[in-house]
Design brief:
five-stranded mixed barrel; OB fold (Dihydrolipoamide Acetyltransferase, E2P); single chain; alpha+beta; 37% helix; binds zinc ion; disordered C terminus
């Protein structure tokens, strides 16, 4: 095989499906090529040397051979397996949520360094879990920024006046917050508390070093989660048309109260 048919890149395994007796089709989010799919042959066999380097959420240096339809993984060397994350069921589900959002928001073969860095940083932060709720909200906010869906949170989306600490709403269809005068009576509008608006603005404006220090009550964390989930679901349904996976997750992310 001529050398030019092989290439390598840093990648995170974001999805895997079974193929045939012993193979898998893996979806990678890569530093140099964005989202790609490739076949990993024999990785479901117990003796596969590659398998341990191709687990979901593993950050790895992969080598691929170009194929007619799908490329084939011919080498993989783990850079970070994010072991603390994989040893915790909740953290694993949070990591998979981040991976799935990256999968849903990105087309194939479109490199985006910022998106790649965001994914790596998020998995790394979840591995050192201090404040996993905030890690996910920060991830969602940056993902929306990078993807061109930054919600407007300072001025009313409709009349452009600066939002005051009062009974504002968040409207997914409008792409941001609305003042009481412009309130839309429609299904994608939610009331947004003054604190929720403040936190979202803070997360939007600051880096994680700063935003990650916020202390948030369980009630406010719940409001923020639902608000972001509603907006993301709306975008996926309207623009990406594939939000069904979000629904299929059901209550998986609703950690029961201890
Ligand atoms: Zn307004």
């Amino acid at each position: 095989m001529p050398e030019s048919r092989e290439y390598q890149t840093e990648a995170v395994v974001i999805k895997k499906i079974k193929l045939g007796e012993a193979d898998r089709i893996l979806t990678f989010y890569t530093r140099d090529h964005g989202k790609i799919e490739a076949v990993a042959k024999g990785v479901r066999r117990p003796k596969s040397k590659l398998a341990g380097h191709l687990e979901l959420l593993t950050y790895t240096q992969i080598r691929l051979a170009r194929g007619h339809n799908l490329d084939t993984v011919i080498g993989s060397q783990t850079i970070d397996s994010f072991l603390p994350l994989k040893n915790d069921l909740w953290l694993t589900s949070y990591g998979l949520y981040a991976a799935e959002l990256v999968n849903q928001f990105n087309p194939q073969n479109s490199a985006n360094q910022s998106m790649f860095e965001l994914l790596i940083e998020t998995l790394s932060r979840l591995s050192q879990a201090q404040n996993s709720d905030l890690i996910l909200r920060y991830f969602e906010m940056r993902l929306l920024d990078i993807s061109g869906y930054r919600p407007q949170l300072r001025e009313c989306v409709a009349c452009k006046t600066e939002l005051k600490p009062e009974a504002n709403t968040f409207c997914s269809a409008a792409g941001g917050a609305l003042c009481p005068n412009c309130l839309y009576e429609e299904p994608t509008s939610f009331s947004i508390s003054i604190d929720a608006l403040k936190v979202l603005r803070f997360v939007q404006k600051n880096n994680f070093e700063t935003a990650g220090r916020l202390k948030i009550s369980a009630e406010l964390a719940g409001e923020l989660k639902n608000l972001m989930a509603g907006y993301i679901r709306y975008i996926l349904e309207k623009e990406v048309k594939s939000a069904t996976w979000l629904d299929s997750l059901g209550g998986r992310f609703d950690k029961p109260a201890a």
